[in-house]
Amino acid sequence: MIGLLGVAAFQAGLFATPGHVERQPYPDKPADLTEQRVTQYAKACENATVWNEELTGSGETPTQILVSMDEVMVSNRSTGWTVQLSYMVGVHSPNRVGDSTGAAAYFVNESTTLRTVGAKADHGELDPRRNGSVVTRC
After folding, report:
1. Which among 16, 27, 36, 65 has most CB atoms closer than 10 A?
2. Which whole number is the average pLDDT over 62-91?
């Protein structure tokens, strides 16, 4: 799977230059919370979070990383926005090539951002308002 994903990503220019992978910046929360802006914010926050975890978590410096969002569901509640998403991450390093999947859910309003994570099979079932952690980076 990483092979096909990797080839498509390389052709699209989505990988960092081989051997030169840097931390991704975390986005700022938009001042005006619309469906489009909250969706972009949650996707950018999850992309940076997963990317940076892969960069520092393996004990070996990756030479390529790709994070792609598969499914995104957004709902507007009276207290804020909920964004459910699933993703795939592909990583290449000198001694490892692999991919994995996961899911995350965000609750976003003017005063807070909450995030919870799970397996891709949990997509749509995660509830960041009930068991999410406060996001301080995004």
Report:
1. 65
2. 90
Could you say which DSSP state residue 121 is in? Answer: G
Please tell me the distance from the alpha carbon of residue 3 to that of residue 99, in angstroms, as a whole number.
10
Instruction: Count the Cβ atoms, other than its own, within 10 Å of residue 74.
Output: 16
Query: What's this model's pTM, rounded to 2 decimal places?
Result: 0.81
* Contact criterion met (CB below 8 Å) for 88 and 99: yes
Distance between CA atoms of 113 and 29, rounded to whole angstroms? 9
Range of the domain at 66: 2-10+27-134
Three-state DSSP class for residue 26: coil
Q: Indicate whether 73 belongs to any domain.
A: yes
Whether 46 maps to a domain, the answer reads yes
What is the C-alpha separation between 73 and 105, in angstroms, rounded?
A: 9
Task: For residue 72, tell me if it sits in a domain.
Answer: yes
